[in-house]
Amino acid sequence: MKAAVFQAQNALTLDDVPKPSPRPGEVVIRLQAAALNHRDLWILSGHYAGLKFPVIPGSDGAGIVCEVGAGVDPSWIDREVIVNPALDWGHHERAQEPRFNILGMPRDGTLAEYVAVPASALAPKPAHLTWEEAAALPLAGLTAYRAVFVRARLQAHEKVLITGIGAGTALFCLQFALAVGAVPFVTSSSPQKLDKAHLLGARHGALYNVSSWAKEFGEHYGPFDVIIDSAGGPGLGDLLDLAANGGRLVVFGATRGNPHEVAMRKVFWKQLSILGTTMGSPSDFAAMSELVTARAIHPIVSQVFPLDDVAGAFDVLARGAQFGKIVVRL
Ligand SMILES: NC(=O)c1ccc[n+]([C@@H]2O[C@H](COP(=O)([O-])OP(=O)(O)OC[C@H]3O[C@@H](n4cnc5c(N)ncnc54)[C@H](OP(=O)(O)O)[C@@H]3O)[C@@H](O)[C@H]2O)c1
Fold first, then answer.
1. Over the stretch 200-211, which tens digit does the pLDDT of each residue have?
2. CATH pick for 2-137+299-329 out of 3.65.10.10, 3.40.50.1700, 3.40.1190.10, 3.90.180.10
3. Does the pTM of the predicted model rise above 0.70?
4. Residue 43: what are its φ and ψ, rounded to 5°?
5. What tens digit of pLDDT does each residue of 216-272 get?
6. What is the best residue among 169, 173, 194, 198 to mutate for testing ligand 1's pocket, by most ligand atoms within 8 Å of CB?
7. Which of 3.40.50.620, 3.40.50.2300, 3.40.50.720, 1.10.3210.10 would CATH assign to domain 142-276?
8. How many CA within 13 A on the CB side of residue 25?
C-alpha cells in the first residue's frame, strides 16, 4: 500500500509498504481520508517525547472497515467509521494512565491507504459529514470537547477567549462554545482569519502579533470568564491579565514554548484556575461525537491534498497558513 513515512527527523517520504494485518482485537480500515495535526509536525521536527522512526504518521482518519482480527465482531465489516486516536486511556475520567498512547506514533497511523487499529477505538462516522470532514474530527474535536466542557465547564453567556483561531483545535473550541451559548472572542496572526472567525460567530477578534493588543482588547471586551490557549510562550502573561477574577485558563499546547515567567501574584490574587488538558477519555469521545451529530456541526476543513502531495500538506501546516484542518484524501 502507499503511505507517508517519517523515515527519520525531517525526512518525510511517500513509500510502498506492506498492508497491515489485524492482530487479535483489531480491525483494518480502508481509509478514505486522514487529517494532520500539529503533533505530526512536532514528531517530524524531532520535538516529541519517545520518538520512533520509521513510522507512518497520522492520528486522524475515516474509512471503511475491511478486515477484522480474532475476537472482533464481524458485523464491523463494511461499516463507515472514524477512529478515536486516544488509545489506552485507562479507567478514570480524571486523567489518562501511563500506558496512554496516540495513534500515529509509536503505532503506525492514518496517512496510508490502510491502518490497523483496536476495535475499541472505532466509532460510527457521523452521517452528516463528508469523508474529509469526518477525518478532520477526531483528535482536535476530542481535545476541544474536553477543554471546553470537561475542564472549563463553559456555561451559556460566559465570555470565552480562544487564542490562535487558525488552529484546528481552536476552531472546534469556537464551534463548541457557540453550541453551548457562550460568547466567544478570538485571536489570530491574520486579519483574514479573524474575518472568517467572525462569520462563524466569534464576537470580536484581536491580532496577537500586534504589541499591546491585550491591553486594548481587554479594555474593550474583557475580562474573560474562560480562556482557552494552546500557544503558551511569553503571551501567557497577557492571558492572566485578560482573565476575570475567578477565571479559568485551559491549556493544552505550547506552540510558542514555555512562558519566561508566570506572575504568581496575579494567579492567586485573581483566584485563577489554570487547567491542563490532553485529548480525552472514551466517554469524552462518545459525547463529542454525539454533540457534533446532534448539532450537525461541520468541522472546518482548510485544504484537501492528495496523498501524493502530502509534503505540500505539511508545508501549509508548518507555515501556519491553514484555517482549520488540513486533510489528505486517500
Ligand atoms: N495536549 C493535547 O491533547 C493536544 C491536542 C491537540 C493539539 N495540541 C497542541 O495544541 C497546539 C495546536 O494544535 P493544532 O493541531 O490545532 O495546531 P495547528 O492547526 O497547527 O495550528 C497552530 C496555530 O497556532 C496559532 N499560534 C501560533 N502562534 C501563536 C501565538 N503566539 N498565540 C496564539 N496562537 C498562536 C496559529 O493561529 P493563527 O493561524 O490564527 O495565527 C496557528 O494556526 C499545538 O501545540 C499542539 O501540539 C495538544
1. 999 999 999 999
2. 3.90.180.10
3. yes
4. -65, -50
5. 999 999 999 999 999 999 999 999 999 999 999 999 999 999 999 999 999 999 999
6. 169
7. 3.40.50.720
8. 3
